[in-house]
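Entry — protein

Goal — fold tokens:
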Amino acid sequence: MVQLPRASFFLLGVRGVGKSTWANAALPAAHRIDLLEERRHHDYLSDPGLFAAELAALKPGSWVIVDEVQRLPSLLNEVHRFIESRRLKFALLGSSARKLRAAGTNLLAGRAQRKLMFPLTVAEMGADFDTAKTLRHGSVPLILAAEDRDAALEAYVQLYLREEIRAEALVRNLPGFVRFLPIAALFHGQAISVAGIARDAGVARMTVDGYLEILEDTLLVYRLPGYEAKLRVRERKHPKLYWTDPGLVRAVKRQLGPLTEEETGPLFEGLVLHLLRAHAEEQKLYAELTYWAPAQAMRTEVDFLLRREREFLAIEVKASRRFDTSMISGLRAIAELPGMVRRILVYDGDRVLRVDENIEVWPIRRFSEALALGKLWP
């Protein structure tokens, strides 16, 4: 789904999502530098001038792919210099922006576009998409290609702890972070209770805040803010926590057996959010994405509220295969929000319906098609 930019760019995404495969296919003539190669990594670490010498040998205007760039963020100083002096164009691939920011690089001060690569979407999986299978194992290509997907997911979590956390020294208290992970996974699709997570993980609240930032920076989770009609501090809602991929959240919870009824709803909701964010990467799909939960109605909520200029589009998500009018109570309640132009219920059934005159009921595939065609908004 990623489109090749004309100038230098960062392409960030979780491990195994296909960044290197895509870059090599999109830029077959590019000079490639893989920082996962330990010898090359060690050479550049001990003598950064070797990196500059390698770039100096390239023709002006050449493309350069630098894979796992977060392993040596200091190299971005030379990247900056060669963008300016020799008009080299860089595809900078990585699984975390944390060390890049920590190094003060500020992602090249705007000289390189920042793009995200997500796990496969429904449209990309095509006829291979199956709701139950996707909710169970996710859609990270590395996992889908494995013969034993459960084992691959378990190994993925260990790789994350080894390569992203321990090797990069992102946390001082690794046992505390290991305790924190499955607890944070239990909050998938829920408003975050930092105090509750801190209590259950046996760490300080400030530590939990830092751990959540690490999960965001390594692109494993996304915090969805609540819609605020009035910007008063006392009215601000807790953000909801969503993991990037259903297979990964199940692996972190150490729950890799058949899907249970209680986890299906949040996983299906997270899948719809994944589609919204993935398609928004190449479309002007929204200016703001929130959830809606009015203070005056404690049990009334709409999962996703998209704003584009002064227009709003509301999306409610239900994992059920059969439609029931009780599913649209939130969409009915949000009808009076000024600027509301469309209300959609996304479910796991196969019938397209229209109820209450203006509420549309779409199967997940119909929703995916609308996103792929750029026809979500009326």
User: Anything to note?
Assistant: The chain has three domains: 9-116, 122-263, 283-372. The chain is about 40% helix and 20% strand. The chain has a mean pLDDT of 91. Residues 135 and 197 are 24 Å apart (CA to CA).
